[in-house]
Amino acid sequence: MDPLAAINPYVSLKGGSQVYQKLPERSARFLRYKGVESSVGSSHGLLVFEFEIHDVAEIKIEYSALSYTWGHPVIDDFKDDLSYAVVCNGQRMPIGLNLNGALQHVYVESDIAPSLFWIDALCINQSDLDERAKQVSLMTSIYSNAANVVVWLGKDDDDARDAHSLLSEYGPALKTILSDLISENPMGAIGAGMINLYDDPKIHERYHLTPRPMEAWKTVVRFLSRRWFSRIWIVQEMVFNNSHLICCGHLHFDWGDLDRFVSLVFGAQWHGLNFHGVQRETSRIARVFTFHREIRISATEYMNDDPHFSLLSPEGKLYDFAQSYLLSSAFLEATDPRDRVFALSAFVNAYGAKQGLRPIWLRADYTLQTTEVMLRTAQVLLWKTRSLDMFSYVSDLSCRADSELPSWMPHFHLSGAVASVESLLDLHQGRKYHAGSLSTAVQTLSDVYLHMDSPRHKLETQGYLLDTVEQVVLFDSGFISTMEICLSLPLRYANGETPVEVLWRTLIAGRTDTAFPAPPETANDFALFVRAGLIGISLEALESSNRDALLRLITVLSEIETRCPHPSIPTVAEFNGILSAVLADLNGCLEMLTELHATSTYRTMMSPTHWGQKGKALVRTHKGFLGLAPFSTQIGDEVWLLKGARLFHMLRKTDGTSNERILLGEGYIHGFMEGEALRLDGMNYTPVTIR
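Given the sequence above, the corresponding structure tokens read:
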């Protein structure tokens, strides 16, 4: 029995039906349209089909394949009762609301009706687990060989119509704008921020565009948030066939136009516009289209700008590809969480074929439990990549859902669990960290042994215990607490830097958007950030008559001035001057603060550490090292350098007697991200078990 049959509405309803005959190897069913049969009590007659079976590799008859979403096209938690029906091979078969809408549009309301159609819910016997698994392995061929893919986004509504109107006008103009930019600056890069279609009057006048209000732009956000765009299976359906007819009711859209629009306009975070209430949707849409674009390119040749990538063997590159796209696709929707692994098999096999390799990848098998699918996949990736990068995508302990998976395992079977993790490896230039090797040009592989048969799926590896945590500062405790940590650092850090420099470098994980390590002039950006923070704290304290907050702020500035002065932290006298100027011109101060927040490069660089429980905490170790660690880190937790790892990892002992530990997540330890720990006296790897 399918362990997750409850989420597949077609399983129980079709069980025992004699409409499905056993399929020959590498064959699939196709629907031949026969007409409409009158039906009592129905406003529409029942569509009538007959099944035809064809060898997928040899089929010469033109057919279309349908791409749609089960359930409701817009509503996430819709319960589909399959109250509609079609007739197949003489038998009435129940179908869902969205599939019914697609079939009615294709065969009744439009002129696009194919004579032969492939639709997963009808052409696959969903109650036959073996057939489902075999058909999944053929889906690449089914979609590749189709004459076209009919995409059904659901029926049109006001949002779809308004979005279609805006895109119909702005889409062609965007092509012209892009062409003009290239001709005017043929050697320059085209960035999304260069094109402001929203409120640039010069662009509107030059290209004869109608200015649209904010609500019109929000309709595009809502339209692109339809569930179809976020389904994991549509990636394969769109990449392996270039002929798409995208239908939303009677409205038609072009994928290339949508992608261009999102990448050049939407991908720029809408040029800084504040879309109240739909910020998460805008970010998600940009990620969806970026993933499609990247995996389409990778279907030709997977490229990775990581310096380590060039050192890998062809097999290592193959599994680097597999791991990268498994993790980066985890924000997409899958009705069945096992499909997060099964849906990527086509891309893994296609890339393997280009390398002349036959990859080891878990074949679709719906008799397996979800946890078994995830663990087997992790086992293959750890074995083949010899990399611990997977550990960086483990959710914070406070956010982990209850599961049978071990602490070192990312929850990529849960929608959004991996996507919510702000990994240090994902920061620009972040892959240049090489804490476990002396150089990015030296490949250091991890030693990992996974006990699949142990109760908690224990993982054995080699590691070095650098230190234990002595102080934890959460970012939501305020900027004063962050500055205070300077006072507990040694006057000369392990690498000779002063406490304030150690702080500002740690807060941005040692890098800027373009360089690692951050150049000294980044301290100027930090100074502006501090200035804005201090003014904001002061104004809030004055407004609420909180004398204690002001006194605490003055005390911290005084102690830093005495113990570890730095140009980026104002002295008490300088701060009093700043505050006097602020109080003399409050309106000007507010404008200045707004400008500082909008233009602060430093604020942008450190933002991942400020995103609530999914972010990081500032930690100081017993030996006086400063770093970033998972939000749930506590005093007494351990900082480990695991063999071959690019970053440090925070581990916690499970009890006072056992040597086993649980993984909290990745960590940045300032001054040790370029292999410095390997040069420490007495440094030696020892066995460590993570469960």
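The first strand starts at residue 27 and ends at 37. Try to locate this feature in the token string yourself.
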